Amino acid sequence: MTRSERKPYSLREIKERLGGEISGDPGVTVSRVATLESAAPECIAFFANERYLPQLKATRAGAVILGESARDATRLPRIVSANPYAYFARVSALLNPPRPPRPGVHASAVVDGSATIAEDAEIGPCAVIGRDARIGAGCVIGAGCSIGDTAEIGAGTRLYPNVTIYHGCLIGERVILHSGVVIGADGFGIAMDEGRWLKVPQIGRVLIGNDVEIGANTTVDRGALDDTVIEEGVKLDNQIQIGHNVRIGAHTAIAACAGVAGSARIGRYCRIGGASGIAGHITIVDNVEISTYTLVTKSIKKPGTYTGAYVFEPHSEWRKNAVQLRHLSELAERVHVLEKKRAQPKRSKP
Amino acid sequence: MTRSERKPYSLREIKERLGGEISGDPGVTVSRVATLESAAPECIAFFANERYLPQLKATRAGAVILGESARDATRLPRIVSANPYAYFARVSALLNPPRPPRPGVHASAVVDGSATIAEDAEIGPCAVIGRDARIGAGCVIGAGCSIGDTAEIGAGTRLYPNVTIYHGCLIGERVILHSGVVIGADGFGIAMDEGRWLKVPQIGRVLIGNDVEIGANTTVDRGALDDTVIEEGVKLDNQIQIGHNVRIGAHTAIAACAGVAGSARIGRYCRIGGASGIAGHITIVDNVEISTYTLVTKSIKKPGTYTGAYVFEPHSEWRKNAVQLRHLSELAERVHVLEKKRAQPKRSKP
Amino acid sequence: MTRSERKPYSLREIKERLGGEISGDPGVTVSRVATLESAAPECIAFFANERYLPQLKATRAGAVILGESARDATRLPRIVSANPYAYFARVSALLNPPRPPRPGVHASAVVDGSATIAEDAEIGPCAVIGRDARIGAGCVIGAGCSIGDTAEIGAGTRLYPNVTIYHGCLIGERVILHSGVVIGADGFGIAMDEGRWLKVPQIGRVLIGNDVEIGANTTVDRGALDDTVIEEGVKLDNQIQIGHNVRIGAHTAIAACAGVAGSARIGRYCRIGGASGIAGHITIVDNVEISTYTLVTKSIKKPGTYTGAYVFEPHSEWRKNAVQLRHLSELAERVHVLEKKRAQPKRSKP
């Protein structure tokens, strides 16, 4: 969705809205955000990491956002904030407001007569809204989205094109779902019976809290019996798979390509790395960080960072080392034998 | 697709349809399935794992399905079955029948004049059916699905919204394809020629057998020359990638996020864990189990379970240990040297 | 898209178009490509690997493409080429031309009045084209695709059904995007502020060069501030995730299920294996090969092959060995102690 025309703001106006402290000319206006490196004079940039000091010195930005400790690192007009990156996010949101909804149901959309659509919601071209579904105030339902029977979408939520919501799922307010997201497909429930897999009907729902964002092509399966729950403020990147009956605690963030197996429970404020895996039926407490590519096979009861990734190296080195993995237990045993022998004096010859 | 109104069944009626043996009052009726924990009196639950004995003792369920050995673990009305989980799956299917097709082609669907659509099939809103495509009896083609030219969909098959079938692919009967599934996209066939990749046309098809279920956003590539084949009864979870010319044997189940590279052949009744990888051009025999996160780089000729995942640990521990991986070959050599020295007496001083 | 009727070509006609050298009867005609194994007499096959010598001996193909060194390995009519696989790709493209566009906008497509559509472009059923978007000459936009406001699609580009392009993204010429691809969704930009994640607006674009092909359900995120760039000739397989502000150099090929984290820069002519991961903010030089399942956490400054995958083994063996990984640092230390003791003579009894 395209951004509307950019309106310039003076630092004074920005401070009035967002707080912080101005050093230098408060009348300087900015209309765009940019990196220090690519900023033009009408831009405001941010500086939050000492590594970028050379870029700060060289920037052509009209103004900069920075932290208390860096207050004097530049002479440019600047806003000092305790959390410069968050402040920058707010300024960017001010300068780049999302395109407002275009209220109304597009002529090509197919809305079941029993559905309830808020008057100021936008239903895009070729979107399909099922029986008894409800679309809240100010929602944007993108082109080609499919909203299943009895599903509900809370106020201010945006679905980009080609999102699919299965029947009965409940999406909170101010949620953002990117293209290709599938919410509420059947979980992987099968029972082997006399040589054939029987399907176990998946009759739970997916409940998604307020202020959740879900990236492109991520899938969240409906519960088998009870519901799958994504609590408020959770941020899921692209191409993540969430199995049935998972519960993800509020404000947890998960990077792309991760997978969470059925019935796992993840706490609040966790940070889960890309392509990591969480096994089924385990519990992870609040404030746990999982590194990229790490498979978590057991419950984690203590906050902290956990890792289990293989370190890469030139292929020829890897070949030599990796093969030893298959003899590691034996190697440990050999060291143990050497230690025992060492502890006992060699038998002296009689 | 929403479930129809729930009709209650007595245990006697259930037994008449599904077999098993009743203990307690056969006239008790149930209308819903539930877990032991969340069951209400109108619910039937199942007990298949001793770990849940406390939940069995405390359940408010109206009836329970359990195995022979647990026959006396409760006084609730119960059905005894040799395979309680499979029995439960059948009861759930009885109580939660899939919504029946709504025969007819939606006015917004686009069906090529040369396509053949069974009279009782349902073609949803904005679905697109190509030239000479065939849709079998009782099929449900969800909103926004695209069925390519000459593709065929067998009787009783369901496509949830936004599934894409490329031209020429053949889908069996009673297949379920979840939203975002892509069947028959080009395989990754490229040939380097004078500094540029040439595309190798992918002219095979995808053949999907009867009773296959494929999860949301899973992709199955068409064959390069011959076909990609998914045999009957195979169950694929979400976000799986199946490369060109792969063959997956009947009744094999693959968990989410796995990838199978081109021309691999997987046997029947295999169970492949989530996020695992099967290398190209290898063969895996029947009844092999691959663990989660395991990369299989060589053919497997013997049934059994195979694993290759890194174990996770607190990050600081991992740092210390993982770095040693790069010296593992050297470490093994050092142990070997120690062993040799130990075997030879130290040179005595002259 | 279905192939048009097959026209037979004589080897002489093929040579006139594609070069190479004929051995045997140049008047032999072929109308299909096939593997050596499944070829019928109207087929041309290729031989590029000595392993397939038995298949070459047994083939029923009418003609074969092979390398100089294999010139005399068969008596069949044959075309000798320095790069038989690339030659085969060209012959296959000749025999299997992609279905030509069917110019025109389908009646069910929704094209904004401000969009510019080339006269000979094909806009499929239920496709949606946004404000000020531009679709180039000879493009095919498949059913259900969504092209965002101000996006541009270069000449000769094909989008299979259900592709989504977000606003402002620029797609080059002769690009192929397979179903489920999402270009330009928001990158994963969030800032923690007082216990809640703030969204960092993602205002960059995605720029995709000429002759790029992107596989089914792959996602390429738009830049946070600057653009995400996929240079010309890049080939991406299915279900790959490309984070914001990544740059992928020309003619690099990436296999399925790989993930590239934000701001990573990958050089030209790299080959990245399936399910591998490239960490954010690192740089990989040209001509690097990354093995399947390898996580690259640091910049790579030298061409070569790099690997970091765990080797699989029977589960019981793995259990014994993998547990030792958690003691590897300790094991190395124990070996060190043994070496030191060995170096020092045992204290002799007084």
Number of domain modules of chain A: 2
List the strand order in the largest sheet of chain A: 8-11-14-17-20-25-28-31-34-37-39
Question: Mean pLDDT across all residues of chain A, rounded?
Answer: 95
Based on the structure given, which CATH architecture of the largest domain in chain A is correct? 3 Solenoid
Structure summary, number of beta strands of chain A: 40
Instruction: Write out the CATH superfamily name of the largest domain in chain A.
Output: Hexapeptide repeat proteins
CATH class of the largest domain in chain A: Mainly Beta
The unreliable regions of chain A are none
Percentage of residues in helical conformation of chain A: 10-25%
Q: Which chains make the largest contact? A: B-C, 79 and 75 residues
Helical run tally of chain A: 5
Radius of gyration of chain A: 27 Å
Shape of chain A: flat
Helical/strand content category of chain A: alpha/beta
Q: How far apart are the termini of chain A?
A: 91 Å
What does this molecule look like?
With 350 residues, the first copy, chain A, is of the alpha/beta class. The first copy, chain A, has 2 domains: 9-95, Udp-n-acetylmuramoylalanyl-d-glutamate--2,6- Diaminopimelate Ligase, Chain: A, domain 1, CATH 3.40.1390; 104-306, UDP N-Acetylglucosamine Acyltransferase, domain 1 (3 Solenoid), CATH 2.160.10. Helix content of chain A is 15%, strand content 28%. Chain A has an 11-stranded parallel beta sheet, with no helix packed on it. A 10-stranded parallel beta sheet of chain A has the order 9-12-15-18-21-26-29-32-35-38, with no helix packed on it. Chain A has a 9-stranded parallel beta sheet with strand order 10-13-16-19-24-27-30-33-36, with no helix packed on it. In chain A, a hairpin with a 2-residue loop joins strand 22 and strand 23 (196-199). Chain A starts with 8 loop residues before the first strand and ends in a 7-residue tail after the last helix. At the B-C interface, strand 22, strand 23, strand 38, strand 39 and helix 4 of B face helix 3, strand 40, helix 4 and helix 5 of C. Strand 39 of chain B pairs antiparallel with strand 40 (313-314) of chain C, so a sheet runs across the interface.
